[in-house]
Amino acid sequence: DTGVSQNPRHKITKRGQNVTFRCDPISEHNRLYWYRQTLGQGPEFLTYFQNEAQLEKSRLLSDRFSAERPKGSFSTLEIQRTEQGDSAMYLCASSSGLAEPNEQFFGPGTRLTVL
Amino acid sequence: EDQVTQSPEALRLQEGESSSLNCSYTVSGLRGLFWYRQDPGKGPEFLFTLYSAGEEKEKERLKATLTKKESFLHITAPKPEDSATYLCAVRLLTSYGNNRLAFGKGNQVVVIP
Hints:
The complex is a heterodimer of chains A (115) and B (113).
Chain A: E1 5-7, E2 10-13, E3 19-24, E4 31-37, E5 44-50, E6 53-57, E7 65-68, E8 75-79, E9 88-95, E10 105-106, E11 110-114
Parallel strand pairs in A: 2-11
Antiparallel strand pairs in A: 1-3, 3-8, 4-5, 4-9, 5-6, 7-8, 9-10, 9-11
Chain B: E1 3-7, E2 10-14, E3 19-26, E4 33-38, E5 45-50, E6 56-59, E7 62-66, E8 70-75, E9 84-93, E10 99-103, E11 107-112
Parallel strand pairs in B: 2-11
Antiparallel strand pairs in B: 1-3, 3-8, 4-5, 4-9, 6-7, 7-8, 9-10, 9-11
């Protein structure tokens, strides 16, 4: 399967714990995005990477959130000291960054539940 | 502020009953409007990209159209497998070539056999 993959698919944690999610983009894609989606809402942009550089972060991304993309391949999103309000679906998307239309292709998401 | 509004929020259709979903947007300089399909518990699946007013794209029973202020997703003779949430998004070109998407809340469609 050459699509975007995310792990784990589901994560249940207690408030105050740290969690880390992984995203493997489509192999030839150099642009990677993280979005967050809550029930009944569309995905909201969190952060953007071009190769290994994190070039933009949403104001939604508090100091407890950190994302990395070492070597410009897979990416990780870590949430420290989780809060119940962090419960959501975390989606990763990638795109080629080359010729139009430059669609973003999404992974299956990681569902986070904070108890 | 850039906004995307989808209507209706929820729609129940009988199998074979055609209908249209609306996505209205207010952005300064559209750089692409995208439609995605999302099944429960899954990530959005890309359907269409539209760039300019008058453009149309088709895929099976789905047809997307674009005007200067809104887009429509027409579902012709829907089947139960067309039940899903349809998400509309506009691409916002910000700094450093960030083509981030701004999504609407979605149109939840249920097709009853």
